[in-house]
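Repro:
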Amino acid sequence: MEYIVRIGLETHVELITDSKMFCGCSTKFGAAPNTQTCPICLGHPGTLPVINKKAVDYTIKVALALNCEIANFTQFHRKNYFYPDLPKGYQISQYDLPVGLNGYLAIKLNGEVKRIGISRVHMEEDTAKLLHFGKTGRISEALGSGLDFNRCGIPLLEIVSAPDIKNVVEAKAYIILLKKLLEYLEVSDCNMEEGKFRIDTNISVRKIEDKYSKTRTELKNLNSFKFLEKGLMYEIERQKEILSKGKKLQLETRHFDSQTMTTKPMRIKEEAQDYRYFPEPDLVPIEISKEWVDEIKKTVPELPHIRADRIKKQYNISENEVEIITSTRSMADFFECCVKIYPHPKKISNWITGELLYLLNQELIQIKESKINPEHLVKMLKMMDIGSISGKIAKSIFKEMFKTGKMPEDIVEEKELKQISDIDKLSGIIDKVLKENSKAVEQYLLGKQQVFVFFVGQVMKKTKGRANPELVNELLRKKLK
């Protein structure tokens, strides 16, 4: 039996602002529970919220990058529902007048481009964090629960896709590109472990002969790319199985259980009318002028897919290398800063996608958090070009630069790593190696050519890897001849 699958993704993104959406409390992650709160974000009677303009700026910026129509008039609404993480008994959000509408994000799969529609981009406040105490931290096995209101009121951006996604591969490609785009815009660090980039999905499966289906399942708790993939795969198969038995699907909200990799029912799915939206009486509507939008446009950088295409054409490097170099804005900036002062993109790319990427992954950090900068790499490459250090020595210097932030010439001087290119000095060392290994010399002269590599290794050992390898090879061949 054939089925049609439709997936829509709702992404909640915490914005990088110093203060919360409607009050002056800090948004810094990791503070002791309930230490970053005030009467406003705790919903005390008589308090009045004030809109964080930086959050509005960031929302316009994201909507522009997602090719949305920018509303010239927007306002906040009260979304009414009861849950322990909502101190006011409602959430300040947006309903029928969001900031951005009718946009798209273009993903690329197997060389083909597909546009995924963006239905809306809107602002709201985050909820408190509900913690469940027990062995697993799951609500079903909790011995008790607690609330941390530090997160309550942090500016939250909700990006809702159209149900244009047809399978798990497209969903994953969309969410990876969206995360990268937001990081390029520098509106969020999108740290999924800290809950700053959260994904909910709406999944609808119907038989191919059925024209339309209103039934869908909302799936929550997909806080990693792996869980997104596993959750969607399970839920699609679950719905297909129900339909294959001639049963009807239920409109519901389900929870992805990361322990069993299955989905479990939470509650019957709410509709818009269940939230009883009405305009927030304590906040004035916002008029977004053309001048305001034009000002924000100036802050939108070259977007990741555009930059990737340009870098590939401009510097003639492989698709795989481009993908790594443009994986973050800071990495792409690092690469292009290097090329400006050392116009050898292939050499730079090799070091970035090799040694640098290895060390960054080992330390679990991004390039902007490391101690190395473009000047470090370029100076080291120039030292290799003039023969003052070998490729092997360069690798050890690079590790030391990454670890300490010291310049390559200082490391070479401190550790006495300068390459030996003095003919007389190397000639003396080679003579000593040949004298100490007379039997190996006899074997070489009798035709055992592979012994040559042994001689080179012995010279390198005596010079601690500092001998100029090309010169060593040349001198050895002359002496053995």
